[in-house]
Every structure is written in C-alpha cells, then in structure tokens.
C-alpha cells in the first residue's frame, strides 16, 4: 500500500504541471522566420541593423497620438509570456511606438493597459522621455491586441503552495 501511495504521489507531481500548462492560452500571433529576437532597448541602440525585421512585442500603453493619416501608440515594453501577454511584473525593456493605420480611439487604447503588437520595424525616431533624450523604434503594426483583465488572468493557476493553515479567496 505504501508503494502505491508513493507512486500516486509521484504521478500527481508529474501531471499537475502538465495540466496547468495545458490551461494557458495559445499565442495570438504566429512568429515569422524573419522575427527579430531583440528588445526595443537593443533595437534603439542600432535600429539600422534590425530594419524591416518582424517583431511581436508588447507592453504598457503610455500614450496615444492621433495624426492626420495614422495613429501612434507609445508603449513601455515588457517581455511576453508563452501566450504573448506582456509580463508587467518584469522589468521594462525600453519603449517603442506602434504605428497604426487610421484613427485609434484613445478609449480603446487606455493609458496603462497592456497591449501586444505584431508588425515590421520601420526605423526609429528621436524623442524625449521626461527631459531625457530617447530613441523610439517604430513598428508598423499589422495586428494589435489590448488585453482585458479576464484574458490576462486566463490560464494562470490560482493554486498556492505554502506552509501553515489558512483560507485564501482570489
């Protein structure tokens, strides 16, 4: 009986991570063979090296600017998880500007929301963050997605391990 319990415990230890991983949503954009594997901060240091490369980047919306024939969304970049959701609890990896065709309703792109974009690197632009000079990589956006709270929490386990006794409600 003791060996059966140990076998069941070992099997459970192997299956729980697989089950939790299976709950995570699939990536929303398919990476291309020409995908740039660099952060916006790295691209800003030598934008000509990455020109025309495909990216899937995400981050927190800083501001939306509507211009005559397009819109620009400035983002503070974060690494993406396996579902391409920005990991906002991680450290930022630079800023970039997502260039969108037409008019972007600012209410659809609220400041502070998390967003993922897929597109091509199209140079850079000098600007400022506060009083500091900054180089913003420009991404001509093919697709973009602003994440809802429900989507950000989907597939994340609410299982907590710890020592002691207690009840948690999330």
From TrEMBL:
The keyword Signal applies. Keywords: Lipoprotein, Signal. InterPro entries: OMP_Slp. PROSITE patterns: PROKAR_LIPOPROTEIN. Residues 1-21 form the signal peptide. This is Slp family lipoprotein. It comes from Rhodanobacter umsongensis.
């Amino acid at each position: 009986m003791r060996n059966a319990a140990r076998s069941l415990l070992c099997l459970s230890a192997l299956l729980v991570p697989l089950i939790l991983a299976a709950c995570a949503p699939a990536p929303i954009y398919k990476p291309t063979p020409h995908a740039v594997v660099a952060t916006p901060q790295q691209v800003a240091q030598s934008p000509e090296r990455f020109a025309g490369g495909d990216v899937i980047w995400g981050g927190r919306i800083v501001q939306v600017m509507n211009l005559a024939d397009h819109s620009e969304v400035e983002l503070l970049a974060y690494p993406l998880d396996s579902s391409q959701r920005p990991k906002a609890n991680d450290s930022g990896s630079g800023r970039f500007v997502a260039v969108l065709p037409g008019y972007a309703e600012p209410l659809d792109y609220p400041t502070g929301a998390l967003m993922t974009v897929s597109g091509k690197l199209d140079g850079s632009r000098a600007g400022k963050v506060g009083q500091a000079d900054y180089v913003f990589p420009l991404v001509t956006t093919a697709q973009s997605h602003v994440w809802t709270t429900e989507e950000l929490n989907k597939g994340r386990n609410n299982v907590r391990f710890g020592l002691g006794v207690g009840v948690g409600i999330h």
